[in-house]
Amino acid sequence: MAECSAVVAGAEMSIKRGWLKVWMKVDSTSVAHTFGRRQVLWELQTRWQNVSQTFERYDCLFISPLYVF
């Protein structure tokens, strides 16, 4: 939950700063897959939908794990 919340908060912050090309590296592969499948926790769904709508217009938000095995 905490790492998912940090991803959403980081995406919101990048929008506020005008950074519309963002590549987020996360420690957990499951977090990367969660956002890739759009299966975000219900507590974060509204915030994530608002963020993802902004980035979908530019197709420039990437979330990937730090290590790929």
Beta-strand percent range: 5-15%
Shape: globular
The whole-angstrom Rg is: 11 Å
Low-confidence stretches: none
The number of domains: 1
End-to-end distance, in Å?
A: 23 Å
Number of helices: 3
Structural class: alpha+beta
> What's the arrangement of strands in the largest beta sheet?
1-2
Q: Helix and strand string, N-terminal first?
A: HEHHE
Helix percent reads: 40-55%
The total beta strand count reads 2
Largest sheet: 2 strands, parallel
Characterise this structure.
This protein has 69 residues and is of the alpha+beta class. It has one domain (2-65). Helices cover 54% and strands 14% of the residues. It is built from 3 helices and 2 strands, in the order αβααβ. The chain has a two-stranded parallel ribbon. Helix 1 (2-16) crosses helix 3 (45-58). The radius of gyration is 11 Å and the shape is globular.
Summarize the structure.
With 69 residues, the protein is an alpha+beta fold.
Layout of strands and helices, then pairs:
Layout: H1 2-16, E1 22-26, H2 29-36, H3 45-58, E2 61-65
Parallel strand pairs: 1-2
Protein name: RNase H type-1 domain-containing protein
Organism: Aquilegia coerulea
Keywords:
alpha+beta, two-stranded parallel ribbon, single chain, 69 residues, 2 strands
